[in-house]
Design goal:
The complex is a heterotetramer of chains A (about 300), B (about 425), C (about 240) and D (about 290). Chain A is mainly alpha-helical and about 300 residues long. Chain A contains 15 helices and 2 strands. In chain A, helix 4 packs antiparallel against helix 10 and helix 12 crosses helix 13. Chain A starts with a helix and ends in a 6-residue tail after the last helix. The model of chain A has no long low-confidence stretch (mean pLDDT about 90). Chain B has about 425 residues and is of the alpha/beta class. Helices cover about 40% and strands about 15% of the residues of chain B. In chain B, strands 4-1-5-6-7 form a 5-stranded parallel beta sheet, with helices on both faces. In chain B, strands 9-8-10-11 form a 4-stranded parallel beta sheet. A 3-stranded antiparallel beta sheet of chain B has the order 12-15-16. The N and C termini of chain B lie far apart (about 80 Å). Helix content of chain C is about 35%, strand content about 25%. A 6-stranded mixed beta sheet of chain C has the order 6-7-8-3-9-10, sandwiched between helices. In chain C, strands 2-1-4-5 form a 4-stranded antiparallel beta sheet, covered by helices on one side. In chain C, helix 3 packs parallel to helix 5, helix 4 runs antiparallel to helix 5 and helix 6 runs parallel beside helix 7. Chain C is globular and about 50 Å long. Chain C starts with 6 loop residues before the first strand and ends with a helix. The chains are: A mainly alpha (about 300), B alpha/beta (about 425), C alpha/beta (about 240), D mainly alpha (about 290). At the A-D interface, helix 5, helix 12 and helix 14 of A face helix 4, helix 9 and helix 11 of D.
C-alpha cells in the first residue's frame, strides 16, 4: 500500500548527495571558504527551524539561543577541560537539547506567545553567558578563543556532513508517518490527540531535534571561527536570517529552506558586502511581500501549478 | 520521485553555487591592493570611519606622488584600497576579512578599528600567512606569543595605556577611586592594569563596575558610585560610552573631584559638540596627537604639517587621533615596502621589526615587539581647563616631560 | 454482550476559573447502548464529552472505562483504549487529503482499520484524494466521524452532529449511527434536535447548570416539570 | 544604602510610568486587532528621531515631537492599516502572520532610519526640558524624567477617558470584547479599528520623544528590545486595559531600577525573565481576567 522506504527517501537521498557534491567541490571554484561555510550554516539553521516551524507551526524566534549554546558548550569544553574537539562538538547538541528540555514548558504557549517567549529565552541565555560576572566561567563579554584547535578544512568538511544529515532528517519528517503526525498536530492538536497521536511527546521530540541541529551547527561554527564574542553567536540576526530563508523557500518542504538559504545568502553577499544597509531594506520588503502575496514561499509557485514539490 | 522533480532538486541545489560568485582575477603588480574593513554602523562606526579616513588620506597622498615605492620591484606602484563595511559585527567581519584575502587577494590587510573587530582577523591572517597591519587593536591578549603575522602599528597595547594615569593618581595622593569600565578587551585590559597598579601601592577601588559595551545610560550607576564617595571616578569606555557617561553625569547633578574618560583626548571637538564644553570642564583624559605635538619626526609629516594637510583636503576640519592612526598605518606600510628586499608578507614583517626603535611619526615613537605589540608611545594625562572666554584648554598635567600646566584638583563644583 | 457497564462516571465535577460547569455527575453506560445527552446551552453537555475524551480533566470524581480509571490519562491514551469523539465544529486536518485524515488516525491508534468501509460509511467513497479543506461543512463532519471510526472505538461520543442538516441527511446520519451501535459500539449523543435523538435512543440524561436533573426516557423527560423549567422558564 | 533604595524606587516609579506609555500602544493594537505589532519598537524610535529632527533641524523644543508623532501616526497608520490589517484578519492564522509581517516592517523602518539618519545614536539637549533636577525624598532626578512621567500619565489617562467616555471608545471596547459580535451590532469595525491603530502608533511615537532622555540616546537597532520590553509590560498588566499597562510599567520600572542599583550587570535580564515567567505562570497577566487560553 505505501511505497517502500527507499522510494520515499529517494528524493532526499538525491538532494543530500547533490548538496554534498556541490559543497565538496565548491572551494575549488570559489575559495572564500568562510562564505561557503556560512552558507552551509544557514542551510542547516533554516532546515532546523523548518523542522519545528514547517511541521508543527511553532516559530522559534529565539532559535539562535540553541546555536549559541552549542557554540559555547564546544568552546568552553575545549578551553576549560581540554577535551578533544570531536567530543567537545558532540557536547554542543547535547547542551542545546538540555536547554530545549528546560524551555519545554514554552510549548504549552500558542502561536505568537511561544515565539516571543522563546525570543526572550534566547536573550536570557545571551545576557547570562555574556555577563561580566561570569568571566571566569564563560569568558563573559570578552569572548572565547580556541585557536589551538583551529582547523578550517576539517570544520568545513564536518559542516558538509551536517548539511547531509539535516537534509536526511528533513526527508524523514517530510516522508514518514512521524512527519504526517506532526502536520496533523499543526492542523489541529485536539483532533490529533483524538487520532491517538501523542501530541506533547512528539512536539517535544521535534523541538529537541530542531534544537540539536542548531546546537551542532553552533558547535561547528565555533570550531571554524575559533575566536568569537557572545554577540557573534547570540545575535538575533541569526534567527532572523534562518526564518527569512526558510519562509522564502517555503516551509514544510525539504527543498524550500535549502533554496531559500542558498539563494538569499548568495544575494546577501552580492549586495551585502558593498551596501549592507540596503540589504535590511530588501529583507524587510521581502518578508512583507511574502506574507501578503506568497505565504507558502517561492516553491508554492510550483505547487500552485500542480507540481509536487519535495 | 519523478524525473521533473529530480531535475528540480539538482538545479535548485546547484543554484546556490552559481550564485555564490565568479572566480576572481589574480593580483597584478600594476597596483598594490590594501584591504581593510570599516564599520558603517554600530558601536564602532564613528571611530572606525575615522581610521578608514586616515588610511584613505595616506593613499591619496601617495598616489598623488605616483604611488608607493616598492623596493622589490624598484619602482613606484599606485595603491588601491579595497574596503568593506562590517557594520561592527564580528561575524560579518570574519567573512569579509576572508573575502579580502581569498577573493580580492589583497597584498596587505589592515584590520578594522579596535580590539573587537581586530580579534577575528588574527587567526585568519595566521591561517592564510598574511601579515595583519593592526592600527588600533590593542588588547593585551593579542600579543601573548611571537608571531610573524601581526603588527600593532599605531597605538600602544591597551594594557599599558593607564600606567601614567595610575602614577599620576599616586602622585596626587588620590586613594579613593571608582572605576566603571566597558566589558570588552580594550576597556577591560585597562581596568585590569589600573587595578594591578593600585594594588602595588595598597589601593583597592571603592567602586568597581563593568558595564555592557552597548551601555548608554549611566544615571543609576552614577548614583551607586556616588554612594561610595570616590575622590576619582574613572570611566573606561568606547566613544559612545564616554558621551553617554558625561551626559548622564551632567544631568544627574552629581559632582566628583576627579573624573577621567578616554575619548575626549582623541575626539575633543566631537565630544564638545555632543556633550557640551560644560560637561567636559575639569575632566581628565589621555591627550593624543594631534592634541599633543610631535615636532621632530623622521617618517611622514609632523603634527603641524599633518593638521594643515588634513585641513586642506577636509574642508578645514581638524584631524583626530584615530585619523592620525590610520595615516600612520599607511606610512609604516609604505616604509616597509620601500625597505624590504622581497615583496612578501614575511619580508614586510621583518622590515617593520627592523624599523622598531628608530622611527618617530605623527603619533610618536614606534617600537614593535616580536609578539606584534606596540610599545612606543605612552599616553600622558591632560585636564580640560575652562578659560575666561568659555573655551576649554587642554593642559597636560603628567608626566613632567610633557607637562604644560598644573592640575586643578579637586575640581570646583557647579 | 456483558452487562457490566463500559463507562461509569462517579461524582464528577469540573470548574473553569471559579465557574462550576459540572458538579456531582453520575451515570453509567452499557456496551452497545446509545445515550442521549440534552440540556440548554451552557448546561455542560460538551464538558461531559470533553472530560470523558480527556480534552479536560475533572477536579473531582472518577471516570471508569472498561474496568479501569481513566480520568488522569492523556486523550491519546484514551483513544488507544477505545474512546473517540466527533466535534461540534469539525476539526479535520485541513492540509491533508480525505484518505490521509483517516490513515493518520488508523496508523497512530494501531488499529487495523478497513479504510474503504469507513469511507463507505461516511459517504466519501471516491473522494479519497480530495483535500479536506475543500469539503463542505457537512462532509467535514462526516470526515471527523470517519477519523474517529478509524481508531476502532468501543465508545463514541457524538457532539451535535445533526446541526445544520436537512431532514433527509438527518435520517441518513441516524441510520449510520444505529448501524455503528449495532457493531457493539456504545455511544453518547449530544443533541438539540429531539426528533433526531428519538430515532436513536430512548434513554436520555438532562443536564441543567452542570447538574443531572433527569434520567430516563425522552418521552418522560418532556413531561418532567424541572426539565421544562430548565428549557423554557426561569433564569437562563 | 537606604538612600540608594529610595533612589531606585523613586527612579523606578518615574521610569515605569514612562514605560507604561511605551507599551500602551502595543496593548491597544493587540487588544483591538489581535495582531502583534512587532514593529512597535521601531515606531517608538521614529518618534525619537522625529523629536531629534524637530530639535536639530527646526531648532524647536523637542516636545514639538509630540504633535509630530500624532501627525506621523495618521500619515503612516491610515494607509498601513488598510493595506495590511483587513487582509491579515481574513488569513488562516492572523496572529502568526501579522507577527512575521510586522517583523518585516520593523526591518524596513530600521533600514530607512539607518539610511536617512545614519547609524549614530542621537541624543537631545537636557536644557530643552528644564535642564535642572527635581528632588523627592532627597533623590534628585533630571527634569526630563519628570516631564516624561507627567506626559505619560496624561496620555494614558487620555486613552482611558477615550475608551470609557466616548462613543468611539465604547465601540473600540466592544470590538476588543468580541469582534464578530461587534460586526453584528452594526459597529463599523474597520473604521474604529483604524482609529485605534493610529492612536496606538501615535502613543508609541509620543513615547519615543522621551527615549533619548530616559535611555540616554536613540538609534536604529534598539527596536527589538523596546518591543520585547513592551510585550513583557503588556503581559504583566493586562490586555486592553491602559491602567493595567501602567501597572505593568511600574512593575518593570521599579524591578529594573532595583536591579540596576544593586545588581547592575544583571539588570538587562529583568524584562525577559519577567516575560518568560509570566507567560508560563500566569498568561492572563497579574492584573486582569483571562483573555486567552494558552
Amino acid at each position: 500500500m505505501r511505497e517502500s522506504w527507499f522510494k520515499r527517501a529517494r528524493a532526499g537521498l538525491i538532494t543530500a548527495a547533490v548538496l554534498a557534491l556541490v559543497f565538496s567541490l565548491a572551494p575549488n571554484v570559489y575559495n572564500n571558504s568562510s562564505l561557503l561555510f556560512m552558507m552551509m550554516t544557514y542551510i542547516v539553521l533554516s532546515q532546523g527551524l523548518n523542522l519545528l516551524y514547517g511541521f508543527t507551526g511553532y516559530l522559534p524566534f529565539g532559535y539562535v539561543g540553541f546555536f549559541g549554546t552549542g557554540a559555547y558548550a564546544t568552546a568552553l569544553l575545549v578551553m576549560k577541560l581540554h577535551l578533544p574537539i570531536g567530543l567537545a562538538i558532540a557536547a554542543g547538541p547535547i547542551a542545546s537539547m538540555i536547554v530545549a528540555l528546560v524551555l519545554g514548558p514554552l510549548l504549552r504557549l500558542s502561536g505568537a506567545y511561544f515565539s516571543i517567549a522563546n525570543l526572550a529565552a534566547s536573550q536570557i541565555l545571551f545576557i547570562v553567558i555574556g555577563n561580566p560576572n561570569l568571566q571566569d566561567i564563560t569568558g563573559g563579554p570578552y569572548g572565547v578563543k580556541i585557536d589551538e584547535v583551529y582547523n578550517p578544512t576539517a570544520s568545513y568538511a564536518a559542516m558538509v556532513v551536517l548539511v547531509v544529515v539535516v537534509t536526511l532528517i528533513a526527508t524523514f519528517f517530510r516522508r514518514s508517518r512521524f512527519g504526517q503526525g506532526l502536520k496533523a498536530m499543526a492542523d489541529d492538536p485536539v483532533s490529533a490527540e483524538m487520532s491517538a497521536i501523542p501530541v506533547v511527546r512528539m512536539r517535544l521530540l521535534a523541538w529537541l531535534t530542531s534544537a540539536a541541529v542548531a546546537g551542532l551547527a553552533g558547535a561547528l561554527y565555533a570550531w571554524n571561527l575559533s575566536v568569537f564574542y557572545p554577540d557573534a553567536v547570540f545575535t538575533l540576526e541569526i534567527s532572523v536570517f534562518a526564518i527569512v530563508f526558510a519562509l522564502f523557500g517555503g516551509v514544510g518542504t525539504v527543498l524550500g529552506p535549502i533554496i531559500g538559504a542558498g539563494l538569499l545568502y548568495a544575494l546577501y553577499n552580492a549586495i551585502g558586502i558593498s551596501e549592507p544597509q540596503y540589504f535590511q531594506l530588501i529583507y524587510g520588503v521581502l518578508i512583507v511581500g511574502l506574507v501578503m502575496f506568497l505565504p507558502e514561499g517561492i516553491l508554492s509557485l510550483l505547487t500552485r501549478r500542480g507540481i509536487n514539490v519535495f | 520521485m519523478k524525473l521533473k522533480q529530480f531535475r528540480l532538486a539538482v538545479a535548485m541545489a546547484a543554484a546556490a553555487l552559481t550564485a555564490a560568485g565568479a572566480a576572481s582575477a589574480a593580483s597584478a603588480p600594476s597596483v598594490i591592493k590594501i584591504g581593510t574593513l570599516y564599520a558603517g554602523s554600530g558601536n564602532f562606526a564613528v571611530a572606525s570611519q575615522a581610521q578608514y579616513k586616515g588610511l584613505q588620506f595616506w593613499a591619496k597622498r601617495v598616489n598623488a606622488e605616483g604611488g608607493v615605492y616598492v623596493k622589490a620591484f624598484n619602482k613606484k606602484i599606485p595603491v588601491k584600497i579595497v574596503a568593506y563595511d562590517d557594520q561592527s559585527s564580528t561575524s560579518t567581519a570574519t567573512t569579509l576579512y576572508n573575502q579580502l584575502i581569498t577573493q580580492d587577494k589583497v597584498d596587505l590587510v589592515v584590520s578594522d578599528f579596535g580590539s573587537v573587530l581586530t580579534s577575528v582577523a588574527i587567526p585568519l591572517a595566521k591561517e592564510h600567512k598574511m601579515l595583519l597591519i593592526d592600527p588600533t587593536g590593542s588588547s593585551a591578549g593579542f600579543f601573548k606569543e611571537k608571531t610573524d603575522y601581526l603588527a600593532d602599528v599605531s597605538i600602544p597595547s591597551s594594557a599599558v595605556w593607564p600606567m601614567p594615569l595610575a602614577k599620576f593618581l599616586e602622585q596626587e595622593h588620590i586613594k579613593k577611586i571608582g572605576i566603571i569600565y566597558g566589558s570588552n578587551d580594550f576597556d577591560g585590559s585597562q581596568a585590569d592594569t589600573l587595578k594591578a597598579e593600585f594594588k602595588k601601592i595598597g589601593v583597592t577601588p571603592v567602586f568597581d563596575h563593568a558595564v555592557p559595551t552597548g551601555e548608554r545610560n549611566y544615571t543609576v550607576l552614577l548614583h551607586s558610585a556616588a554612594a561610595a564617595h570616590p575622590q576619582a571616578l574613572i570611566e573606561l569606555g568606547y566613544l559612545p560610552n564616554d558621551v553617554a557617561f558625561l551626559k548622564s553625569l551632567k544631568s544627574s547633578g552629581l559632582h566628583f573631584p576627579f573624573v577621567f574618560t578616554i575619548f575626549p583626548g582623541q575626539f575633543k571637538q566631537l565630544m564638545e559638540k555632543n556633550v557640551g564644553a560644560d560637561a567636559l570642564k575639569y575632566t581628565y583624559s589621555y591627550p593624543a596627537p594631534p592634541m599633543i605635538k610631535y615636532e621632530k619626526v623622521n617618517l611622514g609629516m609632523n603634527t603641524d604639517q599633518f593638521v594643515t594637510a588634513w585641513g586642506k583636503t577636509h574642508k578645514g576640519a581638524e584631524p583626530n587621533f584615530v585619523n592620525a592612526g590610520g595615516y600612520n598605518a599607511g606610512i609604516l606600510m609604505a616604509k616597509a615596502m620601500g625597505t624590504s628586499p622581497k615583496f612578501t608578507q614575511l619580508g614586510m614583517h621583518q622590515a617593520l621589526l627592523d624599523m622598531s626603535g628608530k622611527i618617530t611619526t605623527v603619533v610618536g615613537a614606534y617600537k614593535l615587539s616580536p609578539t606584534g605589540a606596540q610599545l612606543g608611545q605612552r599616553l600622558p594625562i591632560a585636564q580640560f581647563q575652562p578659560q575666561k572666554d568659555g573655551s576649554l584648554k587642554t593642559v597636560v598635567v603628567y608626566p613632567d616631560s610633557h607637562k604644560t600646566g598644573n592640575a586643578i584638583y579637586p575640581s570646583p563644583a557647579g | 454482550m456483558s452487562s457490566e457497564p463500559i463507562l461509569t462516571l462517579t461524582n464528577v465535577a469540573k470548574s473553569f476559573g471559579g465557574l462550576q460547569v459540572l458538579s456531582d455527575v453520575n451515570f453509567e453506560l452499557k456496551p452497545g447502548e446509545i445515550l442521549g445527552l440534552v440540556g440548554p446551552n451552557g448546561s455542560g453537555k460538551t464538558s461531559v464529552i470533553n472530560l470523558i475524551s480527556g480534552v479536560h480533566q475533572p477536579e473531582a470524581g472518577s471516570i471508569r472505562f472498561d474496568g479501569a480509571e481513566i480520568q488522569r490519562l492523556t486523550p491519546h491514551a484514551r483513544v488507544k483504549l477505545g474512546i473517540n469523539r466527533s466535534f461540534q465544529v469539525p476539526k479535520c486536518f485541513i492540509s491533508m487529503s480525505v484518505r490521509e485524515n483517516i490513515e493518520v488516525a488508523a496508523h497512530f491508534s494501531g488499529h487495523n482499520a478497513d479504510i474503504p468501509a469507513i469511507l463507505d460509511d461516511i459517504g466519501l467513497t471516491g473522494m479519497e484524494a480530495t483535500p479536506a479543506a475543500s469539503l463542505t461543512a457537512n462532509q467535514q463532519k462526516m470526515l471527523d466521524l470517519g477519523r474517529a471510526l478509524a481508531t476502532g472505538p468501543k465508545l463514541l461520543l457524538v457532539d451535535e452532529i445533526g446541526a445544520g442538516l436537512n431532514p433527509a441527511e438527518l435520517t441518513g446520519i441516524a441510520d449510520l449511527l444505529k448501524r455503528i451501535a449495532a457493531r457493539g459500539i456504545s455511544m453518547i449523543v449530544v443533541e438539540h434536535l429531539m426528533e433526531f435523538l428519538n430515532k436513536l435512543t430512548s434513554r436520555v440524561i438532562v443536564l441543567s447548570a452542570g447538574k443531572i436533573i433527569f434520567e430516563g426516557s425522552l418521552e418522560d423527560a418532556s413531561h418532567d416539570p424541572e426539565v421544562v423549567t430548565a428549557f423554557f422558564g426561569g433564569a437562563a | 544604602m537606604q538612600a540608594l533604595l529610595e533612589y531606585a524606587i523613586v527612579g523606578g516609579v518615574l521610569y515605569g510610568i514612562f514605560f507604561g506609555l511605551v507599551a500602551v500602544g502595543l496593548n491597544l493594537i493587540f487588544g483591538v486587532m489581535r495582531i502583534i505589532n512587532l514593529a512597535h519598537g521601531e515606531f517608538v524610535i521614529l518618534g525619537g528621531f522625529g523629536a531629534y529632527w524637530v530639535s536639530h533641524s527646526l531648532g524647536l523644543n523637542p516636545l514639538w515631537g509630540l504633535p509630530l508623532a500624532a501627525l506621523g501616526a495618521v500619515v503612516i497608520g491610515f494607509p498601513l492599516y488598510y493595506a495590511v490589517v483587513p487582509g491579515l484578519q481574513r488569513s488562516r492564522d492572523p496572529e502568526m502572520l501579522s507577527f512575521i509581517l510586522f517583523f518585516g516592517l520593523a526591518q524596513i523602518i530600521d533600514a530607512i532610519i539607518s539610511l536617512g539618519f545614519g547609524p549614530d545614536q542621537r541624543s537631545l539637549p537636557d536644557e530643552a526640558l528644564g535642564g535642572g533636577t527635581i528632588s523627592v525624598l532627597g533623590q534628585a532626578f533630571p527634569d526630563s524624567w519628570w516631564v516624561a512621567a507627567g506626559v505619560s500619565v496624561l496620555a494614558i489617562l487620555g486613552l482611558w477617558l477615550y475608551l470609557t467616555r466616548t462613543r468611539l471608545g465604547f465601540a473600540t471596547r466592544a470590538i476588543m470584547a468580541n469582534r464578530d459580535e461587534a460586526y453584528a451590532t452594526g459597529i463599523s469595525v474597520d473604521k474604529v479599528s483604524a482609529i485605534a491603530f493610529i492612536i496606538g502608533l501615535a502613543l508609541a511615537g509620543a513615547a519615543g520623544v522621551f527615549v533619548p532622555y530616559l535611555q540616554g540616546s536613540v538609534g536604529p537597532g534598539i527596536g527589538n528590545s523596546l518591543t520585547t520590553t513592551s510585550f513583557a509590560i503588556l503581559i504583566i498588566g493586562s490586555l486592553g486595559n491602559p491602567v493595567g499597562t501602567l501597572f505593568g510599567g511600574l512593575v518593570f520600572g521599579v524591578g529594573s531600577m532595583l536591579m540596576q542599583t544593586f545588581y547592575a550587570s544583571w539588570s538587562d535580564l529583568v524584562p525577559y525573565v519577567l516575560l518568560v515567567v509570566i507567560v508560563l505562570v500566569r498568561p492572563q497577566g497579574l492584573f486582569g481576567k483571562a483573555v486567552r487560553h494558552a
